[in-house]
From TrEMBL:
Species of provenance: Saccharicrinis fermentans DSM 9555 = JCM 21142
Domain Metallo-beta-lactamase: 20-215
Designated name of the protein: ComEC family competence protein
Record GO terms (molecular function): transferase activity
Highest taxon listed in the record's lineage: Bacteria
Length: 272
């Protein structure tokens, strides 16, 4: 398995582009999966620099409906004519942020044109393997008392904005060498809940790798401490947290957790 971070807020070399967004390429047993598409076509430029042919992508998995994970999809679909797009129906709901003191749309740019692309979309409402050993999780089991880390985010329901509980979110895991690799987008529903869900579903407790966002960049001190404490309950060999995790939180995680913890920069490759 080879995992390439095509886009992130930060980059490991000036040759690559970076933006507020996330995109990862997973090459797995003859199947190629694009996990999120950043907010523009910049991930495609990085893919070319990294020698990755995106015409070979078989599936696009969209972790949730925010623009910084779905904004590059239109450019990709022009370039790639075969890939199926896996997402939850709730990703089409309009989403808003008030983090800058005013209401601004942050939803899926192609949400109003999905019918034009209907033959490309695969809406999922239950956990399933897309290929043997590669699982898309649609139901994230949250612990009692779970709280969301960001009160600035809303979803539009019947012309009214209500706090977003992220029903559009999914994540992905691979069973590799009898261990788990977990892929997150923003982990609005909690990275610890995603890992626990994957363990309970597969019965595999050893986590080889976790890669993606944790949405701790605007979390309270209490939330950061709680997340680190919960992550410490798992047997995680390695993690590359990025995007919305907060650069300042990575050294804290590395100091507190047993595994090898680092920031997952755009342009980084991991081979297992």
């Amino acid at each position: 398995m080879e995992i390439t971070i095509l886009m992130d807020n930060e980059k490991n070399d000036l040759v690559y582009r970076s933006e507020h967004g996330l995109s990862m390429l997973i090459e797995w047993n003859g199947t190629t999966v694009l996990f999120d598409t950043g907010k523009s076509d910049a991930f495609m430029q990085n893919a070319k620099l990294l020698g990755k042919d995106l015409t070979k992508v078989d599936y696009v998995v969209l972790s949730h409906g925010h623009y910084d994970h779905t904004g590059g999809l239109e450019a990709f679909l022009i370039f790639n004519k075969k890939a199926k797009i896996i997402l939850k129906k709730e990703a089409l709901d309009e989403r808003w942020s008030v983090s800058q003191g005013y209401n601004r749309k942050i939803g899926f740019p192609l949400r109003k044109r999905f019918e034009q692309l209907n033959e490309r979309y695969m809406f999922v409402d239950e956990t399933q393997e897309i290929v043997p050993g590669l699982i898309v999780f649609t139901d994230i089991a949250k612990q009692a008392g779970h709280t969301f880390t960001d009160s600035y985010l809303f979803v539009q329901q019947n012309h009214t904005l209500v706090p977003d509980t992220f029903k559009d979110e999914l994540f992905m895991a691979a069973v590799h060498n009898d261990k788990l690799t977990v892929f997150t987008g923003c982990a609005h529903n909690g990275v610890e809940n995603m890992i626990r869900t994957a363990i309970e579903y597969t019965g595999i407790k050893k986590v080889e790798f976790v890669v993606g966002g944790t949405h701790l960049n605007r979390a309270s001190e209490q939330q950061v401490k709680r997340t680190i404490m919960e992550l410490g309950k798992f047997d995680i060999e390695k993690a590359a947290f990025n995007h919305c995790s907060g650069l300042q939180n990575i050294p804290r995680m590395a100091a507190s957790l047993r595994g090898d913890i680092e920031y997952g920069y755009a342009g980084t490759r991991y081979v297992y």
